[in-house]
Amino acid sequence: MTIKVTPIHDAFVARIDGVDLRADHSPAVLGAIEEALDRYAVVFLHGQHLSDDEQIEVSKGFGDLSYALNHGRAVGQNTRLRPELYDISNLDEKHGILGEADRRRQWREADKLWHTDRSFIDADTTYSFLSGRIVPPTGGNTDFADMRAVYEDLPQAMKDRIADLAAVHSIWHSRALAGGVDFRHDEIATMPPVIQPLVRVHARTGRKSVVLASHAAEVVGMPLEEGRALLAELTAFALQPKYFHSHAWTEGDLVIWDNRCTMHRGTPFDDKAYRRDMRRTTVQGPSRYASAVAAYGQPQPRAVSGGRSAISAISFFTMASPKLSKSRADTRKAPGPPMTSSR
Ligand SMILES: [Fe+2]
Predict the structure, then answer these.
(1) What topology does CATH give the domain 4-333?
(2) Per residue in 241-277, pLDDT tens?
(3) Could you state, in order of their start, the residue ranges of all structural domains in the chain?
(4) What's the 326 CA to ligand 1 centre distance in angstroms?
């Protein structure tokens, strides 16, 4: 078996041929894929008609898997897939198209905002594996941005400005931006916000990238609006066409990306007429908690009173840092404009 790596752009996104992961996912094959990811950040392989077991097995070759969350479904409903698989579909537990009022439909809307997978948790989410099981006839692309090139092209003054900054990431922020759902406090409490640096050094390659996502609610130590303006400015820079790739799916595609140096988003399709069944496995790296506490102080739980808006989740934790406490005091005044539209 000869593995062929074909770049789609100069140093971003590559197609890998000569691999049948059902027949061979040996360390040598997975190592070659990881080396391609180091260089291109996003790779795709056609014709990988993996079963759930096979997808999980292949993904585990890259590290420990995170488990899918069950938010967005009404109490009592069963999940459609086993917990290692994130359900990136418009389908219910009987594999029918979700009803218009189904909470899961609204939950998925935030996937159409630019984001990095699971930047809202206290762990380095490394690789995502998205398997195209059922693909609609048009639409439903997945778009990517190369955040390494974005960082490298930033003016030096901006590099200096953001070098030591960090942002507060919360899944409830992106859900609020996408239109919001009346999530319960017991749901919100399961995922408190976390801190991510604005500049990340890749553990394998040493390359720096800008860390952005629609989960980023504010910049640590900055007044709320000033921090959001900075995030919006960086996001606008990152969304220039030269950093962009759009993957048009065919059934059997496996797309793998490195969340440490990319952003992505889903794009719309006629989700009331066509089924789209994508299943994601996600590799989770080591905790970021210790380094965040060392840099910014110990989070202190604080009671939440009144209201059920998703944005109020931000106030679940007040960091010990006086700067963050100051910026956080303004958090509930307004959710702010979306970082980007869903298209
Ligand atoms: Fe995603």
Answers:
(1) Double-stranded beta-helix (3.60.130)
(2) 999 999 999 999 999 999 999 999 999 999 999 999 9
(3) 4-333
(4) 31
Q: What's the predicted TM-score (pTM) here?
A: 0.84
Give the total residue count for the chain.
343
pLDDT tens column, 120-156 = 998 889 999 999 999 999 999 999 999 999 999 999 9
Instruction: State the distance from the centre of ligand 1 to the C-alpha of 239, rounded, in angstroms.
Output: 16
Note residues around ion ligand 1 (Cβ under 5 angstroms).
117
Q: Give the distance, in angstroms, between the CA of residue 45 and the centroid of all CA atoms in the same chain.
A: 20
Task: Report the alpha-carbon distance of residue 99 to residue 60 in Å, rounded.
Answer: 34
CA 281 vs CA 44, 63, 238: distances in Å = 15, 11, 26
CA of 125 to the centre of ligand 1 (A): 11
The SS3 assignment for 146 reads: strand
Distance 118 CA to ligand 1 centre (A): 8
Distance of CA 116 from the midpoint of ligand 1 (Å): 6
Q: Which residues pair with 318 in a beta bridge?
A: 300
